[in-house]
């Protein structure tokens, strides 16, 4: 396994040398080399706490899931511990630095520069991203100020797709586990003149496992069955020697069952984007995208085990665009200016039924439109061993056409709520510096602010995890982040890197599910969530052996006052104090790779009352790949090898569990 972390300015600059040399050779030969990548990462990457996950680590996990890959990053957290096979899709919000949440992402996730969060819910469609199609992942913690920075409250996760130089002519794999579940994936590349195209797909299906403990199962208890697929087409072509056109289209569908027979959910989507990247003296990146998504879900009574709520449709559409320009300016400066736009509209359509008669009680519709226009400017200034970064961003946000209506079985309106339209301007900034204090040692400091607009889901959609009802809140205000950090990146040698960051972040108007009564919650703005902590990383390579580790310790508390004074000092729900991950890899021969990942997550609370605890969990995952021929390899994987009990939900003693010990065996083809 190659180094997981890139921690110093020297190593980042070194990464750019091959591309520079290739471009020079290209000019001499007259050939056009198409990379399919965006613009080179800005120098400011070294100013903030940043981690890069390389491809070998991405494709060498025990589960083969994207969330498993990201869990090796210090401070990464999903709303719940369950993965994207056994959770409700709407719980797949991701964040960094233990800032808590209510299943909406506080971290911005980009795929080739395109935001991929669901337009209505704000969750990340993790099952729609096949890790084997990625070349690298870069995670930057702290408030963002550049393109789409309004969503980067806790940080940014950038996923970069792999091209023919990584995938080869074709790659495919087929695995089966001890529950007779299967995972199949394939990618085919084709040259298109000087450009290329990649067609990829993946299909995961299985009966799943019982999420309910043995002693809590009833005749209606069901396995967490899953059946998901995704396909994608990506094409890259040169327009001129310095300008590339990138086009992408993808579709996915994911069916799951949660807890009881008939408690089925589906989320699906179709995405498309066009991107033009210019690498000349006036470098630029222009992007436009569209998302079409839908979600449906059936809620089953936990006492009578019959459908009580059919969230039959939640169609939503996301539209967005970005333009970034990097003009040539004074020596030592890298200036970036631009604008971005996002629009999300969606509508909930659901029917509520009587648990006793099965008859329709009420039909509901709710939705609205959110838009965000951002203007940004950033500058990196290199002064000998010192790199300074400063960024300013202004966001104009609009929340419009919000409504909630309930109808009786005859179709008459029984209640209606129309939310007033509102708009606002918000200014965010970030500033930081990094200095090469000694050979291989970079010391950095940064301060930043950020903003996140509440999602349509938070504003207008109530939901039920029976018997707990959570109400929406159309009056929610934008979240605001203030934070600073201090850290260092130290290259002890060519193959040993250490990183340490201390941070203090505060989210004002933090949106959370606040308990009003034992079975009633509402989304509300808390005065603030404070998170102070330390993140550390270690990456080392000694010949054929590699070791990558990370840990995060966070003291996160709710700052309560007024109506939320009772929560003052409580830890945010679903937020552990400590998490750590360590991966040991060994490549004894060409085509042979063995790795094991030991991961620990400390105890956390189910909700804001700190009554129900999710105990700490320590898991071990294994991965083995051995080449049989030049093109065929055998693959074996193990998830949760020691069969640790992973509690993912605890509602008054009603427990849900995460993945048990699971063994995989399969074959991989690389042409």
Explain this structure:
The chain is mostly beta strands and 671 residues long. It has one domain (9-670): Beta Barrel (Maltoporin, Chain A). Helix content is 6%, strand content 58%. It is globular. Residues 1-29 have low confidence and may be disordered.
How can the largest sheet be summarized? 26 strands, mixed
Task: Indicate the multimeric state.
Answer: single chain
Q: Give me the secondary-structure category.
A: mainly beta
The coarse overall form would be globular
Architecture per CATH nomenclature, i.e. the level-2 architecture: Beta Barrel
Beta-sheet strand percentage? Answer: over 45%
Output the number of helix runs: 5
Give helix % range: under 10%
Mind telling me the C-alpha Rg? Answer: 24 Å
How many domains? 1
Instruction: Return the CATH class.
Output: Mainly Beta
Supply database-style keywords:
single chain, mainly beta, Maltoporin, Chain A, five-stranded mixed sheet, 5 helices, 58% strand
Short structural description:
With 671 residues, this protein is mostly beta strands. The chain has one domain (9-670): TonB-dependent receptor, beta-barrel domain (Maltoporin, Chain A), CATH 2.40.170.20.
């Amino acid at each position: 396994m190659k180094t997981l972390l890139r921690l110093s300015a020297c190593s980042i600059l070194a990464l750019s040398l091959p591309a520079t040399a290739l471009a020079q050779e290209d000019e001499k030969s007259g050939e056009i080399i198409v990379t399919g990548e965006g613009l080179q990462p800005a120098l400011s990457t070294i100013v903030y706490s940043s981690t890069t996950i390389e491809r070998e680590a991405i494709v060498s996990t025990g589960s083969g899931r994207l969330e498993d890959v990201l869990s090796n990053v210090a401070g990464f957290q999903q709303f719940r511990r369950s993965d994207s096979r056994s959770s409700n899709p709407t719980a797949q919000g991701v964040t960094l630095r233990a800032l808590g949440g209510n299943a909406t992402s506080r971290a911005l996730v980009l795929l080739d520069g395109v935001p991929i969060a669901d337009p209505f819910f704000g969750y990340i469609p993790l099952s729609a991203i096949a890790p084997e199609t990625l070349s690298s992942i870069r995670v930057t913690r702290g408030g963002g100020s550049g393109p789409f920075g309004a969503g980067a409250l806790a940080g940014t996760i950038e996923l970069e797709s792999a091209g023919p130089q990584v995938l080869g002519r074709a790659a495919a794999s087929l695995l089966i586990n001890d529950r007779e579940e299967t995972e199949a994936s394939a990618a085919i590349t084709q040259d298109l003149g000087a450009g290329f195209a990649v067609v990829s797909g993946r299909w995961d299906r299985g009966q799943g496992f019982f999420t309910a403990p043995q002693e809590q199962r009833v005749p209606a208890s069901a396995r967490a069955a899953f059946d998901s697929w995704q396909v994608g087409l990506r094409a890259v072509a040169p327009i001129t020697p310095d300008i590339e056109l990138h086009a992408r289209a993808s579709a996915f569908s994911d069916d799951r069952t949660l807890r009881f027979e008939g408690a089925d959910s589906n989320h699906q989507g179709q995405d498309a984007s066009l991107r033009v990247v210019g690498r000349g003296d006036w470098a630029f990146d222009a992007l436009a995208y569209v998302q079409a998504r839908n979600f449906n879900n059936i809620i089953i009574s936990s006492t009578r085990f019959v459908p009580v709520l059919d969230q039959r449709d939640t169609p939503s559409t996301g539209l967005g665009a970005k333009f970034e320009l990097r003009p040539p300016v004074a020596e030592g400066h890298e200036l970036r200016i631009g604008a971005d736009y996002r629009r999300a509209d969606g509508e909930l359509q659901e029917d509520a039924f009587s648990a006793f008669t099965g008859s329709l009680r009420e039909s509901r519709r709710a939705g609205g439109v959110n838009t965000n226009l951002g203007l940004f400017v950033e500058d990196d200034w290199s002064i000998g061993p010192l790199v300074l970064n400063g960024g300013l961003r202004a966001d104009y946000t609009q929340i419009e056409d919000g409504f909630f209506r309930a109808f009786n079985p005859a179709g008459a309106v029984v209640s209606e709520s129309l939310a007033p339209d509102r708009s606002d301007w918000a200014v965010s900034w970030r500033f930081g510096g990094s200095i090469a204090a000694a050979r291989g040692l970079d010391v950095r400091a940064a301060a930043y602010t950020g903003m996140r607009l509440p999602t349509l889901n938070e504003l207008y959609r109530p939901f039920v995890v029976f018997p707990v009802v959570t109400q929406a809140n159309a009056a929610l205000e934008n979240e605001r982040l203030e934070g600073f950090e201090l850290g260092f990146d130290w290259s002890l040698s060519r193959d040993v890197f250490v990183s340490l960051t201390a941070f203090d972040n505060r989210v004002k108007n933090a949106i959370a599910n606040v308990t009003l009564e034992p079975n009633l919650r509402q989304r509300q703005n808390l005065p603030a969530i404070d998170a102070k902590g330390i993140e550390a990383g270690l990456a080392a390579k000694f010949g054929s052996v590699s070791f990558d580790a990370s840990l995060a310790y966070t003291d996160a508390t709710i700052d309560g006052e007024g109506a939320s004074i009772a929560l003052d000092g409580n830890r945010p729900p679903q937020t552990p104090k400590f998490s750590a991950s360590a991966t040991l890899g060994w490549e004894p021969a060409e085509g042979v790779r063995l790795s094991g990942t030991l991961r620990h997550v400390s105890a956390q609370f189910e909700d804001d009352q700190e009554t129900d605890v999710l105990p700490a969990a320590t898991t071990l995952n294994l991965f083995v790949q051995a080449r049989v021929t030049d093109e065929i390899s055998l693959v074996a994987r193990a998830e949760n090898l020691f069969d640790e009990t992973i509690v993912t939900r605890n509602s008054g003693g009603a427990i849900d569990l995460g993945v048990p010990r699971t063994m995989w065996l399969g074959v991989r083809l690389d042409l």
